[in-house]
Design brief:
The relative contact order is 0.23. The longest helix is centred in the last third of the chain and has 16 residues. Helices cover 39% and strands 26% of the residues. The chain has a single domain, classed as TATA-Binding Protein (2-Layer Sandwich). The chain has five helices and six strands; from the N terminus they run ββαβαβαββαα.
Length: 135
């Protein structure tokens, strides 16, 4: 998959609208037996205070068997978990999918689990691959 990578943020373009992208992500994540904790609707939150914002939603999810291993090594990793993916319409009206490459966790936390980080990266890439134009 081709994608932008800046500051450990991977950005690719979705083939679908923001709501359709979210629905596909939800089904994909749930199909992997990964727990979804919630979806934050930035667009609606902005609208609720009479401000404008392009459509933007954040889906929050986790695989506790992976995150727990990391937290047992460094509890502060809990500040950066659970995982999340941002789906948003950019200023050019293109729908984008953004998430962090797991390698940044290694750079800021005190743990030694490169295989867990690699597995998290593979899961994120797999989840996003169904909806990306960058296949």
């Amino acid at each position: 998959m081709n994608h932008e990578k800046n500051n450990n943020i991977i950005i690719s373009q979705s083939c679908y609208t923001v709501p359709k992208t979210i629905n596909i992500l939800k089904k994909t994540i749930e199909g992997k037996n990964i727990k979804i904790f919630g979806i934050i609707d930035h667009f609606e939150n902005a609208r609720s205070i009479n401000m404008e914002l392009n459509d933007s939603k954040l889906i929050i999810f986790a695989n506790p068997s992976l995150g727990t291993i990391l937290m047992k090594q460094d509890m502060t990793v809990g500040l950066d978990l659970p995982l999340h993916i941002l789906i948003y319409k950019d200023f050019d009206k293109q729908v984008k999918i953004a998430y962090r490459d797991g390698s940044w966790l290694n750079s800021i936390h005190n743990f030694d689990s490169p295989q867990i980080v690699e597995k998290m990266n593979a899961i994120m890439k797999d989840i996003v691959s169904n909806i990306s134009n960058d296949k």
